[in-house]
Amino acid sequence: MEGIEEHKVAFQSNLRPEREIIEEALNWKPIDNTDDYRVENAYAYGGIALLDSAALSKMRSVGKEIVKEIGRKILSGHLNLTQISFPIRCMQANTALHNTLKGSLMSPLYLNKAAATSDPLERMKLVIVCSISSYIHTSTFLKPLNPILGETLHARLEDGGEMWAEQTSHHPPVSHFYIEGPNKNYVCHGYYNYTAKAGLNSVTITNVGKKVFQFPDGQIITHNLPNELFAGTFFGTMRHESLGVLVFTDNLNRYKAKVEFAFNKNLPSDYISGEITDVHGNKISEISGTYCGHIEIDGKRYWDARHIRPFRIDYDIILPSDSEIREDIVTLRRGLVDEAQAAKEALEVLQRHDRKLRGSKH
Among the entry's GO cellular component annotations, what is one (predicted)? Predict the structure, then answer.
């Protein structure tokens, strides 16, 4: 099964008290495994492969329809796919706001552990692992629905943390988020902005944004976002890869970390290589592993997908602008594809009308 759907059971079955989640985080220690593990759907040459043949057939048929409608421009790479209306039958019953919050689904473990330590270097390591270990759980081949400008989302993490997101720009699409851990022992906020370009047999997503992690003692760690490649869109194995270089910065303690994807042509592209340096640029920690299975820092395994599962996120409705009550999402979750498509088109007409009234590109 693909992406988010693969881990749906894990989100729904892990019903434990908040205090138990926090206690587990405080007692967590690196894992003993030392093998070179990758998940079953990791592609031989790198990234996460789409193994669901039905989903693959559906997406490729929709892709062919779009190419026929738009022509050669989409294949030239000069068309911004964020401005194209996709049929809802090849989309997931979530918006980009849902995916924005899901990027923090490993927080109950790693950020509670980070908040409990007084060692700023150890905290930096935990933040790095918190971000990268989420990739296989947030990867999806089905396109999320575009949020309407001003659309919101509210959710809660298993440790009692609260999560908020809002669509703050339509073109370009920008989603802001804010997350508070239990008793504000950690805060995470930032934004996502992206462009998507199509090639002959791929889609490249360029992410522009950042995540900021704050702790009560004043330590602040920020990092950028990787780019994404969806290859095999029309033929071959369809796969999702994260590419580029992540840079983590702690200005207070003068630490900096760089994590490079696809660093070695002899290894699958999901393998990572990185280091943490001090104020003088000296390497003080080494990072290795793969976002498809395990991450090690200084020879200690901080994450292994076999042992650490994603945490549940519960969405609740607190505003009439909430994504959870969008008619297209509600009907799509009920399996009413035609009705969902009609609801989606009605929202798009309303959004174009509102944009015209504002007299602005935003």
Answer: cytosol
